[in-house]
Amino acid sequence: MSIEPVVLAMVQIAAMVVLTPLLIGLMRQVRSRLEGRAGAGVLQPWRDLRKLFRKESLRAPGISWVQATGPIVLVTTSLALCALIPLVGTVAFPLIPDDLFVVVGILLVGTVALALVGLDAGSAFGGMGSSRHMTIAALVEPTVLVAIYALSVPIGSSALSQIVNSRIESPASVAAPVSLLALVALAVAVIAETSRMPVDNPATHLELTMVHEAMILESSGRDLAWLELGSWLRLGALLGLVGSLAVPWGLAVVLSPVTVAIGLLALTVKLALLGAGLAAVEVFLAKLRLFRVPELLAGSFVLALLAVTASYLTVQA
Question: What is the pTM of this model?
Answer without folding.
Answer: 0.94
